[in-house]
Every structure is written in structure tokens, then in C-alpha cells.
């Protein structure tokens, strides 16, 4: 018995599911993006207070580290979904057809992205669990008490990347079996990336 391509109804359902997965990272990525502004403001305030008024608080300084880590870790999957991560795409963007790019993305996701994210989760779990057990806080007097929450980002980041990976597998898989509308965003992203490099 041979496998048949998914029906139009099945494809539409899977595509909606992929969009739902991506919506999680889209919402989170756009939300934490505001931390970049807050980092600048707090850093400016730290400098003004220190050099103009000889005042300073460890907790305020550590908050910049917390915001930077949160921005980097929680927006990684959003950036990946938008094609913003650095990669060598001299062949991918310029010479590969949309179908070839779909194969590269699908195989790269299955053989590289997913295994690495699972490895990070497994390697980090005990480390984070121990921090939660101790309710680990700052080693500095007057520092922030939530180091255990900060370390939890080590689990959230690969989890969000796996969500994006699942969306990519669905989108590229659907595209390869004939669902052309599965990859409009990614095709446009690749074309824009190539155009930007040509003018860069």
C-alpha cells in the first residue's frame, strides 16, 4: 500500500497548526524585543547615577544582564523563524530552487537543529533543576534573587527552538508534497536575503 499525499483538508489543517506554533514565537519575540530599549535606558541610568551622583545598586546592574539573557534566549527562535540567523547561503540563496531550499531546511532541521536542541535540554536539565532546588540567588550582596529563573532560560530557549523546528518540518514537508502556499514567507525571506547580500 503506497503512501498518498495529504488531502487539501489535511494540508490546510497542518498548515494552520504550523502557523499556530510560529505564533507562539512571534508573540514572544515581539514582546521581549522591548527589552533592548529597557537595557539601554537602565544602562544609561546606571552610568548617570554612578558618575553624577556617586550612587549605584548591584541589583540594577544585574538587571541589565537578566534582560540581555532573556532577550537573547527567548528571541532566538523568533529570529530563526524570520531567517535572521547567520549561515553560509552562497548556494542556498542564489543557486538553489525553492524545492532544493525546502530539502535543505527540512534535512537540516531534522538532522541538526532538533538533535542539538534535544542535547541542550538534556545537558541543562540537572543544572537548572539544582538551581531551582536551591532557589539560587545572586552571589553579590544586594543582587537579584532570581538566578534560578535566569538559568531556566537554558531550557526555554531549546524548547522554543523545537517549536520553530516543528513548524519548519511541517511547512517544508507540505511544500515538498505539493502544498505551494506552505512556504511563501520563507521563499520571500530567502529572496530578500539574497537581494540584500547582492546590494551589500
UniProtKB/TrEMBL annotation:
What is one Pfam family matched by this protein? DctQ
Q: Which UniProt keywords apply?
A: Cell inner membrane, Cell membrane, Membrane, Transmembrane, Transmembrane helix, Transport
Question: Subcellular location, in the record's words?
Answer: Cell inner membrane
Q: How does it sit in the membrane?
A: Multi-pass membrane protein
Q: Where is the Tripartite ATP-independent periplasmic transporters DctQ component domain?
A: 39-171
Tree of life domain: Bacteria
Q: Transmembrane residues, as ranges?
A: 26-53, 65-81, 102-128, 148-170
Purpose of the protein = Part of the tripartite ATP-independent periplasmic (TRAP) transport system.
- Quaternary context: The complex comprises the extracytoplasmic solute receptor protein and the two transmembrane proteins.
Family from the record: Belongs to the TRAP transporter small permease family.
The protein's name is TRAP transporter small permease protein
Query: What organism is listed for this UniProt entry?
Result: Thiorhodovibrio winogradskyi
Amino acid at each position: 500500500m503506497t503512501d498518498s499525499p495529504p488531502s487539501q483538508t489535511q494540508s490546510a489543517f497542518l498548515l494552520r497548526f504550523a502557523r499556530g506554533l510560529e505564533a507562539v514565537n512571534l508573540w514572544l519575540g515581539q514582546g521581549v524585543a522591548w527589552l533592548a530599549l529597557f537595557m539601554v535606558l537602565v544602562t544609561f541610568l546606571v552610568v548617570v547615577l554612578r558618575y553624577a551622583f556617586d550612587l549605584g545598586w548591584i541589583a540594577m546592574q544585574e538587571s541589565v544582564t537578566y534582560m540581555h539573557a532573556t532577550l537573547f534566549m527567548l528571541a532566538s527562535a523568533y529570529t530563526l523563524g524570520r531567517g535572521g540567523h547567520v549561515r553560509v547561503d552562497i548556494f542556498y540563496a542564489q543557486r538553489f530552487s525553492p524545492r532544493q531550499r525546502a530539502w535543505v531546511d527540512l534535512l537540516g532541521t531534522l538532522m541538526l537543529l532538533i538533535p542539538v536542541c534535544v542535547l541542550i535540554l538534556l545537558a541543562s536539565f540537572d543544572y537548572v533543576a539544582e538551581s531551582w532546588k536551591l532557589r539560587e540567588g545572586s552571589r553579590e550582596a544586594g543582587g537579584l534573587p532570581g538566578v534560578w529563573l535566569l538559568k531556566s532560560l537554558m531550557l526555554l530557549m531549546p524548547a522554543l527552538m523545537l517549536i520553530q523546528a516543528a513548524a519548519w518540518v511541517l511547512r517544508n514537508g507540505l511544500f515538498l508534497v505539493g502544498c505551494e502556499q506552505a512556504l511563501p514567507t520563507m521563499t520571500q525571506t530567502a529572496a530578500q536575503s539574497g537581494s540584500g547580500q547582492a546590494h551589500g
